[in-house]
């Protein structure tokens, strides 16, 4: 089992959320639960007096993990990787088709066929190591999102490589949970799916307040706060501090560049993406981290999402629509609005 990393990437700091929620209707209590699934700790918080709501949410998360995890031998993703063919369930079809679309739209900066590289590095496991260049080159031969094809009628083929949907599956789970809560008539929810923050329902005090994790301070300390007025929103972060190991003074983080086979070196510490779709924000956060700000802005121009890039030289580069919604807490960084 992979090592647990609490609240990776963006934190919807439930302490922060709790402050914001203090103005909410008090006729329904807030129920909370922590769930370890999809290799991360998830925190669920819903406004409901039905104790079965959290049970249903946990059941859905575990069901999706059983379909989408590359670490579950019987999952549909594992079956497609091992056999090269799959007639998918509706959920797996949705996430695989979205994975193909995101890979195409990011020119492979997000690549769902990166499984061989992920296994080779083993980052987040007890077997984490620095592979030889020869090993990396061999694994790179199997990485090409174009080998994953949708054939119609729920069928997919994979002509080479192994799938790893770690860069999009939690986001997809967030979207599914929102649909589940809406079908159950739930008024409000705040979900932190291992750094994939999803808010649902009318925001208390006019906005949802989401803390952006500080990239080089202890967990729970925020770089800034993002205020979102939307009734449904997701903020997903990819960062160097999530999963990593160190060898000889060098940090090797888990965000692998599909073009080099090594941890991405784009001059970034973290990228946060805000979007109505948690799955799309998840895939794009990985892609933008790999691509860097310049290429990332070109990618963003094709999607209705916004982003915050945190650079190694302590700049916070933010897209125009998010700029008035973001409050910087650490003044050793400086904010620049991207154009």
UniProtKB/TrEMBL annotation:
Known EC number(s)? 2.7.1.180
The source's domain of life comes to: Bacteria
Q: Which residues form a coiled coil?
A: none
GO terms for MF: metal ion binding; transferase activity
Q: Does the keyword Metal-binding apply?
A: yes
Pfam families assigned: ApbE
The record's catalysed reaction(s) read: L-threonyl-[protein] + FAD = FMN-L-threonyl-[protein] + AMP + H(+)
Cofactor, free-text remark? Magnesium. Can also use manganese.
The entry assigns this protein to a family as follows: Belongs to the ApbE family.
UniProt name for this protein: FAD:protein FMN transferase
Its lineage opens with: Bacteria, Thermotogati, Synergistota, Synergistia, Synergistales
């Amino acid at each position: 089992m992979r090592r647990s990393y609490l609240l990776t990437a963006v934190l919807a700091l439930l302490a922060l959320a709790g402050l914001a929620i203090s103005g909410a209707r008090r006729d329904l209590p807030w129920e909370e639960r922590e769930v370890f699934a999809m290799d991360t700790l998830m925190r669920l918080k819903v406004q409901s007096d039905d104790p079965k709501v959290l049970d249903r949410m946990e059941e859905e998360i575990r069901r999706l993990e059983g379909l989408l995890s590359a670490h579950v031998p019987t999952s549909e993703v594992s079956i497609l990787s091992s056999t090269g063919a799959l007639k998918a369930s509706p959920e797996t079809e949705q996430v695989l088709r979205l994975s193909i679309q995101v890979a195409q739209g990011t020119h492979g900066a997000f690549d769902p066929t990166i499984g061989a590289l992920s296994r080779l590095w083993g980052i987040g496991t007890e077997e984490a190591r620095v592979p030889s260049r020869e090993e990396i080159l061999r694994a790179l031969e199997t990485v090409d999102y174009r080998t994953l094809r949708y054939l119609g009628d729920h069928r997919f083929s994979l002509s080479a490589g192994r799938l790893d949907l770690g860069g999009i599956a939690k986001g997809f789970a967030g979207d599914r949970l929102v649909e589940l809560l809406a079908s159950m008539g739930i008024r409000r929810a705040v979900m932190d799916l291992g750094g994939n923050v999803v808010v649902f329902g009318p925001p208390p005090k006019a906005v949802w307040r989401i803390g952006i994790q500080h990239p080089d301070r202890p967990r729970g300390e925020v770089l800034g706060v993002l205020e979102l007025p939307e009734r449904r929103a997701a903020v997903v972060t990819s960062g160097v501090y999530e999963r990593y190991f160190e060898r000889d003074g060098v940090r090797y983080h888990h965000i692998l560049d599909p073009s080099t086979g090594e941890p991405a070196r784009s001059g970034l510490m973290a990228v946060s993406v805000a979007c109505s779709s948690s799955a799309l924000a998840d895939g794009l956060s990985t892609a933008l981290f790999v691509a860097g700000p310049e290429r990332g802005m070109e990618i963003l121009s094709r999607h209705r999402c916004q982003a915050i890039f945190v650079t190694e030289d302590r700049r916070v580069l933010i897209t125009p629509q998010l700029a008035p919604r973001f409050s910087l807490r650490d003044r050793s960084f400086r904010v620049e609005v991207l154009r």
